[in-house]
Design brief:
The protein has no helices and ten strands. With about 160 residues, it is mainly beta. The chain has a single domain, classed as Jelly Rolls (Sandwich). InterPro entries: ConA-like_dom_sf, MAM_dom, MAM_domain-containing.
């Protein structure tokens, strides 16, 4: 896929996530960074990059916003596929949808909390009659060392 709809975080360029390198709470790193797990990306590569929640995060959540997508239609639903890692029960990853006309974010997915300390993959399908943003939120309930939430290889279909 083109760099427009695919984010592997190997470079700082990711048009669909315009602020990920500025966004407080999320950092771009690899498994050799000395920041705890995961120690590789979802392909098992120690030097490949992904995003993870910073251990320095001050608040209880860190939001990663996409750029604004146009309304979907029946032929082109917006599908977002991503790999994720959540290490402990005190950490959660949620995906939310914010429609253009609303201030509130509707949660459309939350990590099931079963497969911890490993890379998992998930696909979300979005059907929206208006412009929208998608928000990946890492949530921290208690601060403990060596815990993390990470995201890798986000792919956005043409309907996004």
């Amino acid at each position: 896929g083109s760099s427009w709809n695919y984010c592997d975080f190997e470079t700082n360029l990711c048009k669909v996530l315009p602020e990920f390198n500025l966004q407080s709470g999320w950092i771009r790193r690899n498994g050799r960074s000395g920041m705890g797990p995961p120690y590789s990306d979802h392909n098992g590569n120690e030097s490949a990059y992904f995003l993870s929640l910073s251990s320095e995060i001050q608040s209880s959540s860190a939001a990663l916003r996409t750029s604004i997508f146009l309304p979907t239609d029946e032929e082109h639903l917006c599908q977002i596929r991503f790999h994720y890692w959540v290490s402990q029960m005190s950490r959660t990853l949620m995906v939310g949808l914010q429609n253009f006309s609303e201030d509130t974010v509707t949660n459309i997915w939350q990590d099931p909390g079963e497969l911890r300390n490993q890379w998992n993959v998930n696909t979300i399908t979005i059907n929206s009659t208006e412009k929208f943003e998608v928000i990946f939120s890492g949530i921290v309930e208690t601060q403990r060392q060596g815990e993390s939430v990470a995201i890798d290889d986000i792919t956005f279909s043409e309907g996004c």
